[in-house]
Amino acid sequence: MKSLLLFAAGILLLSGCAGAPPREPAPPVSPPAATRPGVAPRPGAVVETPSEAAGTRFIRVLLSGGTSGVVLEGETIRAWGIDGRLAAEAAGRVTLAAVGERIRWNGSRLLGDALDVAGAPNLRVGSRKVAGRVRLIARRGELLAVAVEPFEAYVAAVVSREVPPRFHPEALAAMAVAVRTYAVGAAAKPRDPAYDVVAGVEDQVFDGMDGIAAAFREAADRTRGVVVRYRGELARTVYHSTCGGRTEDARSAWGKDIPYLRAQSCDDCADSPVYRWEYRMSEAEGRRVAGALGVPPGKDLRIAVAGRTPTGRASRVRVTSGGVSRELQAAEFRKVAGYAKVRSLKMEIVPVAGEWRFTGEGWGHGVGLCQFGANGMARRGAGFREILARYYPGTEIGGETP
Ligand SMILES: [Zn+2]
């Protein structure tokens, strides 16, 4: 199940939509108190933001891992050891590297295994600007960079990656609630004792705090703390760009029935630029895809839909050539063909003179909230609660504490 969910998460996030299905519960490892979310940074940070001072909760986002080094940039950069003492200071740019369980500062001094770093007026970790401090942890030669971000700033940043700022404020508010619901669930079951979520497609995509339009911050602020629940549990608030007229059942997309993720008709996304789409797959590209799927392509290569879900989306695709035939999940076919080319599985495949003409509707997996549909509803006068109730029917919308 876990691999299925992760696979599904990959598909939906890479396909221009997100809202990863929840993860399996993490093993019962208690993180050290100092790394728990919600704990304000120790005094002495270069910049203490108002939310830090007020003790607002935080989410720990893994920005960088799997490598031994990271570059930090800021006018002034200061680092504290876990004992709270100032360990190092620099201006402009610092290169940090893990050496076993210790951190090397700018190619010279060896410090301890964990540092808290803050920058003034702000700090960049690689390409990302962070709003809070960053904890660096050396672990067996790997350097983890974990941004400790104010929760609502994180929500605004994730929403900004998903929808344009010109969307109606009520649609942005609905997205903020969906993003927050996922994040609250993830923070309750951290991926690792050192962090709650990763910044990439495995969770919700976080590209840092650059260029977050005011509309996104307002959407997070005015829905602060609001989440979606089903029978008291946090709901799986998945979302996608455009359903193309009808959302998809979770059962059809991922093989698991979820009562509030069942197909809904949606006529509010009709003005989405991808409500209808077309893609012409060249002969060369068809051969590449067939080869990648294990079918050696010959002159008689055929690609066809071999099964559909009750909402009309392709569930199976068959690729045939030279006596070799392979039938596979349509989602796997879409992944190999390219999420930005085959934008949804609500599609027809017509062979045309050695090529294939794909015509389809919508973008993304189609499960849960339709972003362009939410915007259409908002423009008709619906509020964010009404929008969420439509795409997650039977759920309750309220504060984090039920
Ligand atoms: Zn729709």
> Beta-strand percentage?
25-35%
Q: pLDDT under 50 segments (min length 5)?
A: 1-53
Rounded to an integer, what's the Rg over CA atoms? 23 Å
* Gross geometry: globular
Helix content: 10-25%
Number of separate helices: 10
The assigned structural class equals alpha+beta
- Mean of the pLDDT scores? 87
Bound molecules: zinc ion
Largest pleated sheet: 11 strands, mixed
Ends: how far apart?
28 Å
State the total count of DSSP E strands: 22
Short key terms for the protein model shown above:
single chain, 402 residues, alpha+beta, 11-stranded mixed sheet, 3-stranded antiparallel sheet, 22 strands, disordered N terminus, binds zinc ion
Q: How would you characterize this protein structure?
A:
By secondary structure, this protein is an alpha+beta fold. 24% of the residues lie in helices and 31% in strands. A hairpin with a 2-residue loop joins strand 19 (347-352) and strand 20 (355-360). The longest helix has 20 residues, at 169-188. The model is unreliable at 1-53 (pLDDT under 50). Zinc ion is lined by residues 242-243, 266, 268-269, 370, 373.
